[in-house]
Predict the structure.
Amino acid sequence: HAHDALEIAKLQEKTAQLEHQKKIKETEAAIANIQMNNIRTQEDEKRKTLSSETYEHQKRAQYQDQLARRRYDDQLMQQRQVNEANLRRQEESVQKQEALRRSTIEYEAELRHENEMKRLQAELKGKWQRLSVRIKT
């Protein structure tokens, strides 16, 4: 019987060892599972962070583009206003030159008229004097 008892004790010890190894394996599997879950969670967080950063980058790029477009539109508007102001000044200058030209033409016409009148007056005066001289003689 002692031999059977020893065999039973060995079997019980072996069973206990197998149970212990099974628990160790289960614990190791649970740890590995937790580690995998942690890695998966970290990867999900990385993916969410990257997605969020990409979204923010796109929003910033869109905002910068919008600002650049506004600046360009403002520059175009300012250039248009400068061009319109220059055109107005040119038109005013042309009008002033035209008015000056008309005034010069009118002044020249007045001078010609005055000179013509003086010439006619001198001519008539000369004729009058010749006639007076004839009448006296």
